[in-house]
Amino acid sequence: MRHVMFSTLLPLAHRASADARRCVPRTVVARLPRGSRRGHPAAEAVYGIDRLVHDVRHGRFERSMSALTAVGAAVTTAEIYFEHDKASYGDPWMWAPIVTGPIGVAAGVAGFANHRLAKTALPLASAIIVANGLQGVWLHARGIHQKPGGWRNFRYNMEKGPPLLAPLLVTLVGGMGLLAAVLRREK
Question: pLDDT of 39-86, one tens digit each?
Fold first, then answer.
């Protein structure tokens, strides 16, 4: 497949960067309108996608993963709040993910904004969230065991009792924060 220098597709302002000199397949260039291939919005969109793929391939998406951790923590906390509200917060430990969620949001936003906080505050908050998620699996398993019939009535208690695997969603959000802490920052 023949390649053409990508910098010929970009306006002069973008040519200075080293990333702008990467090659793209000729088929991408051929799809652009003939009259204005240079500086065309489609060329810049391709550049954005290529840049994202390049950053992911080289482990440079710390900021993006920090932001995703913040969003994931916010959505998960809201969902957990409503689910635990249905159970009337019968166990005081039901408040633990509600407390750790906003901490994850704050750490994710801080990791997005500041490189140093992405390497210090974000992994600390994420480790706490992972521990809380694992604790939630244990507490939900205990809740299933305490239902009438316990583990012998597994199918019924899995449907009517606390969701056994739901706390792993919290663990996943914490894992995203831990992953963001070991990645390199985007340029």
Answer: 655 555 556 777 778 777 777 888 999 999 999 999 999 999 999 998
9 closest CA partner among 48, 40, 52, 45: 40
Q: Which domain holds residue 172?
A: 62-182
Q: Do 168 and 136 reside in the same domain of the chain?
A: yes
> 23: helix, coil or strand?
strand
Residues 68 and 100 in one domain: yes
Question: Is 187 contained in some domain?
Answer: no
- Rg from Cα positions in the chain: 23
Q: Does residue 147 lie in a domain region?
A: yes
Residue 31 inside a domain? The answer is: yes
Report d(CA 173, CA 14) in Å as an integer: 35
- Sequence-distant (6+) residues with CB within 8 A of 88 are none
**CA distance linking residue 118 with residue 134, whole number of Å:** 23
- Which of 78, 117, 70, 110 is closest to 97 using CA atoms? 78
